[in-house]
Amino acid sequence: MPRSVNSVASRARRKKILKLTRGNFLARANVWTVAKNTYEKGLTYAYRDRKAKKRNFRALWIQRINAGTRQHGMTYSQFMGKLVSNNIELNRKVLADLAMNHPAAFEAIVKSLK
Length: 114
Fold this sequence. Notes:
Elements: H1 7-20, H2 27-30, H3 32-70, H4 76-85, H5 92-101, H6 103-113
Helix pairs in contact: 1-3, 3-5, 5-6
């Protein structure tokens, strides 16, 4: 009996990966083994960077809050400590947005803590 290999399904699998790697440079787009490795590595990076994105944004928010508080004679650490002790529950994302886009509102918060 001849060997059955289901080449239709195999070809479909390869075409799916090659379609996903379209736009890559040279062999990364059209050589099956290289494209497969590129695709898998890309998924790994995507997973890792979904976590890193959260860290990067938190760091950005902290820098913006720190810059805003220093304009009013206070450090980030002092500011956050006073927020907690006064039971003001604004997260860093909102505080950074206020510091960047609504400086008058941010100044009011800083003055209420002094």
